[in-house]
Amino acid sequence: MKGVAVVGLGYVGLTLAVTLARKGFTVFGSDRDPRVVATLAAGRPHLFEPGVEDGLREFLGERLRVAATLPREPVDAVVLCVSTPISPESRQPELENLREAARAVGEACPPGTLVVVRSTVPVGASRRVVLPELVARWGRARLAFAPERTIQGQALRELEELPQVIGGLDTESRDAAAALFRRVTPRIVPVSSLEAAELVKLINNCHTDLIYSFGNEVALLAERLGLDPLELIRAANVDYPRPDLSKPGFVGGGCLSKDPYILLNSSTSTGNRPWLVGQARGLNEYLPIHVARRFLEMLRDTRGTLEGGQVLLLGFAYKGWPPTDDMRGAPVLQMLDLFRGEPLTLLGHDYLVSPEVLRGLGVRPTTPEEGFAGSDGVLVITDHPEYAKLDLPRLLASLRRPALLYDCWRILDEPVVRAAGQVRYAGIGYG
User: CA of 305: how far to CAs of 298, 302, 315, 377, 386, in Å?
Assistant: First the structure.
């Protein structure tokens, strides 16, 4: 197997395309967004992911080709990596991108081409949405599901290290997909069906969402009791032979903010309503709103008024580590809905999100050094490691007094903040 087409060149598709090229495949990447195609064809990634730009530089035009459509020459396999968003209103999965991609494959590729779905879908969607489009044109199909489970910021490494779960329409399909991914990763985990593989992806991400939500539950309780949630969690974890408790923090991104709703859709369609998944997602979505309200309350208490105040927001991507520029599910988006309604000047900084994006959100881009100067409040939203390296004594000296520093992930040196005088320190569930 040498020729592989990858349909959809977002985070999932682009990282897979680069990895397959690195493994010796000839890869044909396609995307219907002309801006994505033009940017990649020029050798520039349209998203931040360590190693992708190097891969483009090394393979583009040779083992890696990019176009708006599928290649004319036959390929051994097509991997579908198109987006499967949820409706903002109904929270139901929207699968038209997947249906259109399957139809395009059926029209462009010869019968017998292996089709692998990698997009996250409700259980049964590969069989219900993709398969009919292929069978209508081919009579039969070889179809598999192989979920993507990497983390942004480490995707290229994890593609080669994580076990690959694979389910197939039949044994032939599963084995063919296994042969493809065996060239990528050392361990294949075969499961009994398309549906089993689809559900594995969903339960992986929903479990992660659930773990994080409990840390947030602890933080909200600690806040009410006047206790330090990090002290509680650290003490609970010391040499205790059970699963560690997670620190409180924001949970966003393209997967964790979406997949719980896809699992809920899969479950309720069978007549079962999960007990935990929706509650965990609800808590994690509530946390940015709670923090924004708490920050405003503390800032008002510190200054006496919000009128004429200046606030610096640090971290606009959905997470700080591993670093990313992805703003899907970013906590700052919900916070800004509240901040823009107050008489505040909003300054902002992110190491990877562009200044143009910040301006589009109604925030004035700045550097951390310029942003601290004259600000009344600083909200550190993400745990990007560079924020922990800031020259804190110098920056704190440039704040107006009294001031508030709300450090969501507690990555700054609290004693240094308190020693600065007239600077109130707080974090999620703390202060």
Answer: 10, 8, 25, 12, 31
- The total number of residues shown for the chain amounts to 431
Which among 202, 290, 212, 279 has a CA at the least distance from the CA of 251? 212
State the Cα–Cα distance between residues 53 and 291, nearest whole angstrom. 36
pLDDT at 242: 87
Strand (E) or helix (H) holding 347:
strand 344-349
Total-model pTM: 0.94
pLDDT surpassing 90 at residue 245: yes
Q: Quick check: helix, strand or coil at residue 124?
A: coil
Angle at CA of residue 167, ends 166 and 170, nearest 5°: 135
Q: How far apart are CA 236 and CA 233, in angstroms?
A: 5
Comparing CA positions, the residue from 412, 347, 350 lying closest to residue 374 is 347
Q: Assign 346 to helix, strand or coil.
A: strand
Q: pLDDT-based confidence at 308, cuts 50/70/90?
A: very high
Sign of CA dihedral 27, 28, 34, 38: positive
- Kindly list the structural domains of the chain, giving each domain's residue range(s) and its CATH number in brackets, ordered by start: 3-192 (3.40.50.720), 193-431 (3.40.50.720)
Report the chain's C-alpha Rg in angstroms: 24
